[in-house]
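Lab notebook, design round three. We kept the backbone fixed and only want residue identities now. Task for the bench partner: fill in a sequence for the structure below.
Input structure tokens:
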């Protein structure tokens, strides 16, 4: 059940990302499809970062994603103070609402 919800969420995310990128002409950002993202996630090859605000993250985040909202100065200060251990040997997949 969790895998199905994960795939549905990723597919919705990718659809919204495609729509946004078409409207804002940001084709230079690398993209991967939901199946590739899922396989990489299951193998531990990617770090999933949720860029939604804390309230939305609490309701809708992908299990295993870390929350890094960047909505303002307070969020950026919180991220800097968190001392996150970001692995440099993994791809980073960022999603938002």
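Proposed sequence:
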């Amino acid at each position: 059940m969790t895998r199905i919800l994960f795939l549905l969420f990723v597919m919705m995310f990718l659809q919204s990302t495609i729509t946004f990128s078409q409207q804002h002409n940001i084709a230079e950002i690398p993209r991967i499809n939901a199946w590739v993202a899922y396989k990489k996630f299951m193998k531990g090859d990617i770090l999933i970062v949720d860029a939604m605000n804390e309230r939305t993250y609490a309701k809708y985040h992908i299990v295993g994603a870390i929350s890094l909202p960047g909505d303002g100065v307070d969020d950026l200060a919180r991220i800097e103070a968190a001392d996150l251990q970001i692995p440099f040997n993994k791809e980073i997949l960022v999603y938002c609402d």
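Keep this in mind before ordering anything: The mean pLDDT is 75.
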